[in-house]
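fyi for ur records
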Amino acid sequence: MAAASMSRRSPDFSPSSRSYCRGRAKGNRRVLFHRLTASAFAGWGAASVLGKYRAYAIILCCPDSCAQAAGIQLLDSDPNLAGAIWYPCAAEPRRVPLGSLAVQFVDSLQGVKDCPVTGTKLPLVIVSHGRGGWFGGHDDVVEALAEAGFVVAAINHPGDNGSDSSKRDSLSVLASRPADMIGLLDFMLNDWKDRAAIDHAKIGFFGFSAGAYTGLVLAGGNPDFRRIAPYCTESNKSLGCEQFRSGDIPSNPPHEPRIRAAVLADTALNYMFTPEALAAVEIPLLIWRSELGGGGVDPKNSALTANSLPGKPDIHVVPAGHFAFLPPCSPQFAANLPRFCTDPPGFDRTAFHCDFDASVVGFFRDHLVGEGETR
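which gave:
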């Protein structure tokens, strides 16, 4: 039986509760925008703020407090590695045009394009977006990590992103997603032009919704694709169910032992994991899940999965829905796709993301950065 895990409900995120976070949104170099395409179906888990991360929240959120900017290199030459790399940079950021990588409502990201990398032996975090999302969909998190001294890499999952939905409903994408991340990690460690700056022993993972499912597999989880059966009723003619009926079921997806710690946010596809299928997950985990769910994520299933993990992962619940874990929406995005931008009354998404970003940075500092090392 899995050991009891720690579960915390988030503190107050009312508009009056986090004035320093609002200060960050107004005065910091980084601008929080929602980065999700119109066709996105992403999901995030929820979390409360750990007391030990409060100092990180204050450092990250106070205006003019960041010691470094985020350099950014765009990956646009290979459709299987379409994305970006963020890293520490000693220059003032600005908007970086995305060119061919642009998506609906987003044509630029904040950073310093092709800035020289600052630092050596840097920890690396790879990022997996949700179903139908895109590589820049969690820009507030990746920029916070880069400003704190991490290298961060994210790509579009081929066939399952806002610009390419060709594999989105296929069972095969459930196996190809982990393979995509392994390919990204191989590229970063072996082929990236600045690979010498990375410490190969300090690899982390961040994933959201289907991206969190991806991380759970990489960490050692073994999904049983046959557990889709109850969802494939006779009237369900989706591609995945047709493949299931014909026996076209993927083989077991790969794990990745080089990953040493992971943040999983509102994990999707929880029903595919039994407690026995999670027994091999041994790395430190920070689990976030939403109290209200939505976006295809059932909060009861996400709680069951989180509580079935071995060891004592940190599990946190935020009093909001699935999409609260996407960055605060730009006015244009909110006007066109309000369902991704609507939160419960009294919930301040900007304040929450200040604490969320801080907890992610603090968790990876604790588990990837050695004692005495500061950046």
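The mean pLDDT is 84. thats all i got for now
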